[in-house]
Amino acid sequence: MKIAALYDIHGNYPALKEVLKQVKKLSPDLVVLGGDLIAGPMPLETLSLLKRVSTTFKTVGIMGNNDQDIVDIYAKKRVGLS
After folding, report:
1. Which residue has the higher pLDDT, 64 or 23?
2. Domain of 26: which CATH number?
3. 16: left (phi over 0), alpha (psi -120 to 50) or beta
4. Which domain holds residue 74?
5. Residue 71 reports pLDDT greater than 80
6. d(CA 37, CA 50)
7. Considering its fold, how many domains does the chain have in total?
8. Least confident of 5-14, 53-62, 64-73
9. Where in this chain does the record put each Calcineurin-like phosphoesterase domain (predicted)?
10. What is the enclosing helix (H) or strand (E) of 45?
11. Cβ atoms within 10 Å of 14's Cβ, excluding its own
């Protein structure tokens, strides 16, 4: 079984794009997304790309401390809190 593990992306969309080219070549059986994924300079673009990864490969994710902060921020915006 081939496993690709991606950690500490921190919203770095350009770097993630480059790494995913290599992941695609490897054609892993599983992609592990391990924490601190989207908080950083390009969170929305990074999240969009990670969603595409999850439709291409079997994927499991582990939230990091920065990921929970982002989830909390967006949850507050949805319910109108500041």
Report:
1. 23
2. 3.60.21.10
3. alpha
4. 3-78
5. no
6. 9
7. 1
8. 64-73
9. 1-72
10. helix 43-56
11. 11
